[in-house]
Each structure stands twice: as C-alpha cells, then as structure tokens.
Amino acid sequence: MSAQSQAVPAAATTTGSAAPAAPDRATGATPSGGAHPGSLAHNYHPLPVTVATGEGAWVTDVDGRRYLDLLAGYSALNFGHRHPALIDAATEQLGRVTLTSRAFDHDLLHPFADRLTQLVGPLVQDGGPGAVPMMVPMNTGAEAVETAIKIARKWGYEVKGVPAGRASIVVGHGNFHGRTTTIVSFSDDPDARDGYDPFTPGFRLVPYGDAQAVADAIDETTVAVLMEPVQGESGVVVPPDDYWPALRRVCDERGVLLVADEIQSGLGRTGTTLACELWDVKPDLVTLGKALGGGVVPVSAVVGSSDVLGVLTPGTHGSTFGGNPLACAVGLAVVGLLETGEHQARARDLGTHLHARLARLVDEGLLTGVRGVGLWAGIDLDPARGTGRDLCEALLARGVLAKDTHGSTIRLAPPLVIDRPDLDLGMAALRDALTQLAADR
Ligand SMILES: *Cc1c(COP(=O)(O)O)cnc(C)c1O
C-alpha cells in the first residue's frame, strides 16, 4: 500500500463486538450493519452502517466507529451535522411554538419569507413594473416541484392563455425531481416509474443539455421548461456552458417560464447561492429544499416574481406544515449562513481542490471520468473493476460514507463546512479504495 493509506481515517472499532447484537435495551437502538428484517419497508438498500451521532462532517456509528460523511444527506447537510447556529435556532424555537398551521400567522413566517426573497429574489427574473419577488413555503423537495408545476400551469391558463386542459411542460432525460405520482410521470428511470401508472399527462421529455431540443418541443401549449441546473441523481451532470443562457433566450422568445430545480444544486453547493448564477441566468421560478432545512427539518420553497406567484390565491394551494414556526426558525438561520457568502466561497475553493485531486485519480487510471462543479462531483469507475456499490463498501471499510447513483458512478457532496485536511483524508481513502478494487480484478 502507498503512504496515503496511513492517512486514511480509521474505521476502528472502539466498543465493537463481532456478532450482530440485539437492540440496545435503554435506547432501542439497533447495532451497526446488522440485518434488520421485519417492520421497515424495503424501499432503500442502505450501506451496512448504523449512525448514532453526527457533528460537522463526521458521524459515529452505534459501535463508536467514526466516518467522514461525503454524501451530506444528498446536500441536505450542506452545513454539516448539527451546525450550532441551526441547532440553537431550532432549540430556541422548540421552547416557543412549533406549529400554527397557515390558518394563523406566526412571528417568523414573514421574516423568513422576507429574508429568503432578499437572498434569492435578486437571482430570479424580474417581473417588471410593480412586481416583487415572493416565496411559497412547503416542506419536502417534491412538494416544491409540485408547487412549481401547479403555479406554471395556472399561469399558463390565466396569464399566457393556454387552451383549457392542454398545458405542457418540457423536462430533461435523466431528470430527478422527486417521487410523487405526477413527478415520476415524467421520469425516464424505470425503477422510479414501473408499477405506478397511470401517469399524469402534460410533460415532454427531451435530451438534457440540448437547447435546440427544448426549443423544438415548445408549442402554444407550453407553460414551462423544468430542469435541474446540474443533474444530481443522474451523476452530477453539468450541461454545456451555453445551455442555460440558451434556455433563458428560448423561454423569453416563446413566452414560457424557465423553472430551475435547485433543490440539490442550490444553496452553496456549486460555489454560488444558486447554480444558475454560474451562467448568469435568472430563472422565473426556483425550487429550493434539502439544505434549506439545514438537515434539521424538511423545509422547501418556490421563489419567483409576484407576476407569476400571484396566480396563487387563498385556498388554491397549501400545506399544513408549510412555513411552520420550527421550519421558519431553521430556514432563517440557514439564510443567515448563506448571507455572508462564506459557505459559497468555501465550496468554490475546496471544490477546486477536490476536482484537482479527482483529476489526478483519472490520470492514474483509477477513475474513468469525473464531472462536477463546486464541492460536488460524480465519479465513474471502470465497470470491470466494480460497481458504485462496491466502491462505496470499500470506502465504508475505510471510514468514509458515499453513495452510488447508477451503475459504476458515485456522487461526492461533502458538507460545505468540511475542512481541507478532512477532505484530503477522504481523497486518500478514495485513492486507497480504488487501488484495492483495481488490484482485486
Ligand atoms: C432531492 C431532490 C428532489 C426531491 O426532494 P425530496 O425532499 O426528497 O422530496 C427534487 N429535486 C431535486 C433536484 C432533488 O435533488
């Protein structure tokens, strides 16, 4: 083994016992990595680790092993585990009030809406004279996407004048926008779709990254183009540099809303507050989620101008938990972390370092491809050397958490609060895991 292997974070057992143990009597917690048949539906295939605690970029399992978290809850943990500012905000709010429903206002609802639109409003398309940026609070990402779809359709009928019942939305191959029946209706991933039909009509799939294909798919029924700025689940696919500017032009020319799903790409991950800023593009609607809740509670939102969001009137859309006091307290603290630009700058600087390290692994023949931007990368392993799952298991054994996407691709999305020595530990573990997989074949 190379010298690097010594720098690998140790997955040392401090309290471990070899045999799978029964749940802890006091806490009911299950042992790490054991098989737990029974009461939990099998809609996930997790790596064999059972997390007990987390702090910053690290988690500790029930046996006391420490792991560097390079998945960060699919970017829901951009600020790491239990960021003090977020935990303080949540704890303080738990002592005040946690839910009012939208039947009544509470004292953090308007402050959260104001601060979020101050941050993100300047990054969305200006609605013209008299229009102001607005937001709709929801909970999960899928709900934000559903909300954007509903707004776009209603805007299409009421403002654009699309014939009743005919609104269409253009979406990209390889998209991931969530798991509701309407959203999986326009997925092209069989795993996400099969068995869940009949599907919601009104969506047109075109190749991702091809602006001409979007232009060709637009007609008088088209209300929106809905795309991820960078496709996360697909393996961190960054489109050509002229893609988003071209989408903006096409949408302007054809009177169509440009909707950017920034649920994974937004809030610092790519080195900017929104990934769309990378190309100086202002979408009409932005969906936010994941990191907006700081990994504490689910918080999502749609942000856009009042000339579009104005189609929502009392009773036409809503959510029992959307904009609840606890969510607003955490969301406000998240906005506070982003207002300084510090985390965006970290993602840029550490991202440059990450991509330089990954490029070396390609040069050494250990990886076949690397994509990404900011502190975010999709890496491809030679399928002959193993699957993404094999690599994740090899990383797990070296004290690093990561997750495969499809086939032999894994995604790296370290928390933006990671420090450079820890990132280097993770990269050394990756190199060591890849070297072992290469040697094993
Ligand atoms: C995760 C994700 C969603 C769905 O978010 P949930 O909170 O899981 O519903 C939607 N869009 C994108 C781009 C995502 O990455």
Automatic annotation (TrEMBL):
Pathway: Amino-acid biosynthesis; L-proline biosynthesis; L-glutamate 5-semialdehyde from L-ornithine: step 1/1
Superkingdom field: Bacteria
Region (Disordered) location: 1-41
Descriptive protein name: ornithine aminotransferase
Keyword DNA-binding on entry: no
A single GO molecular function term of this UniProt record: ornithine aminotransferase activity
Gene name, Swiss-Prot/TrEMBL: rocD
Record SUPFAM superfamilies: PLP-dependent transferases
Keyword match Amino-acid biosynthesis: yes
Broad enzyme group: transferase
Key words, A-Z: Amino-acid biosynthesis, Aminotransferase, Proline biosynthesis, Pyridoxal phosphate, Transferase
This enzyme's EC code(s): 2.6.1.13
Cofactor(s) named in the record: pyridoxal 5'-phosphate
Annotated Low complexity bias: 7-30
Alphabetized InterPro entries for the sequence: Aminotrans_3 (IPR005814), Aminotrans_3_PPA_site (IPR049704), Class-III_PLP-dep_AT (IPR050103), Orn_aminotrans (IPR010164), PyrdxlP-dep_Trfase (IPR015424), PyrdxlP-dep_Trfase_major (IPR015421), PyrdxlP-dep_Trfase_small (IPR015422)
